[in-house]
Every structure is written in structure tokens, then in C-alpha cells.
Amino acid sequence: MLSAVVLGLAQGIQHSFEPDHLAALSTLVGDRRGAWRCAQLGAIWGVGHTSTLCLVGACVLAVDAGLPDSADHVFKLAVGVFLVALGIRSMLPPRRPQASRAIRTPVQAMLVGMLHGLAGSSGLIALAVAALPTFAARIVYIAVFGLGSIGGMAGVSALAGIGFGAVRDDVFALVRVPLGIVTAAIGVQSIATGWAGL
């Protein structure tokens, strides 16, 4: 059981640094509300991510089955479309001078996290089954993995909030477009990966 906790926590923190998650992060901190606010939204994203991982993982492990490969590809396709939309949205100038294209509410952050959780569920379940011998250890692993991703995303979001908060408004306006391009490019890659597997 200890191995499940250690493995889950370490890999959960590492998981928060994956490119599609960092792309989502750029939309979380796009209005630079400071470290604490950004950390809150990052943690809420992690809660959404963890909730779908735990729900799907518990259901699949309970019936001793695996998700079909097609489901994973569909989820990746959906995440890709969503990231492309977020990237394009973040590049558009706000309608009002003080408006923001960032994800503004906890509900929005939660939904983004839930979608990412679906896309990563099949690989995580397969890893839990391969690495751990019992149902209880597998569930603990998935839950602790989720806690690690919550902490990792909150920490990365806080650091990004500090960094973006120190940037002048005119410089930040220039940075916003490259961030949107990178986010959209990662989305296109996810779409291509998902489509190729269907």
C-alpha cells in the first residue's frame, strides 16, 4: 500500500507538467490575478481532473475491465478541439479594455480539469493494473495520483501567476499571442493523435 501512495503522489505531481496541462494553465492565469488566486484555480482544475479519474477508474476496476482504445482516442480528440478553441480565444483581443480571455470562474476551471481527466483515464488505469496487485492498492494509487496533480497544478499556477504579474501590460499583450499559438498547436497535435487511433 505504501508503494501505491509513493508512486501515485510522485507521478501525479509529474503529470501536472504535461504539455496539454500547461497549455490549460495558460488560460487559468491569463488575467494575472496573483499567486493565491491562480493557485486556487489550478487546484480546482486538479479537483475536476481527479474526480473524473477516480470515478472512471473505480468503475472500470470494479468490473475488472479496461476502457476500449477508441474511448481514449475520442477523449484525446475532444481535449484537442477544446485546446484549439482556448488558444484561438486567448489570442483574440478582449471586447472591453479591462476584459479578459482567461478562464474566470471555478466552474470553468473544474470543467477543463474534468475533460483532461477523461483523456488520461485509460492510461492511468492500465498503469495501476500493471504495477499494483490488489483492487484497494489500485484505488489508493489513483486517488493519491489525483492529489499529486492537484498540488502540482496549484503550485505551477501560483508560480505562473507571480511571473505574469511582474510583466508590464504592453509586454503581456505581446506574450498572450504566442501562448495562444502554442496552446492551439498542442490541441492540433492531440486531435491528430486521437484521430489517427480511431
Write a structural description.
With 198 residues, the protein is an all-alpha fold. The chain has one domain. The chain has seven helices and no strands. The chain has helices spanning 2-15, 19-28, 35-62, 69-91, 106-131, 135-165, 169-197.
Q: What's a concise summary of this model?
A:
This protein has helices at 2-15, 19-28, 35-62, 69-91, 106-131, 135-165, 169-197. It is mainly alpha-helical.
What's the overall geometry?
A: globular
Total of helices? 7
Largest sheet: none
> Mean of residue pLDDT?
79
Helical content stands at over 70%
Number of strands: 0
Proportion of residues in β-strands: under 5%
C-alpha-based Rg, rounded? 17 Å
Would you tell me the structural class of the helices and strands? Answer: mainly alpha
Ends: how far apart?
36 Å
Defining traits:
198 residues; mainly alpha; 7 helices; 0% strand
Topology, please?
Blueprint: H1 2-15, H2 19-28, H3 35-62, H4 69-91, H5 106-131, H6 135-165, H7 169-197
Helix pairs in contact: 1-6, 2-4, 2-6, 2-7, 3-5, 3-6, 4-5, 4-7, 5-6
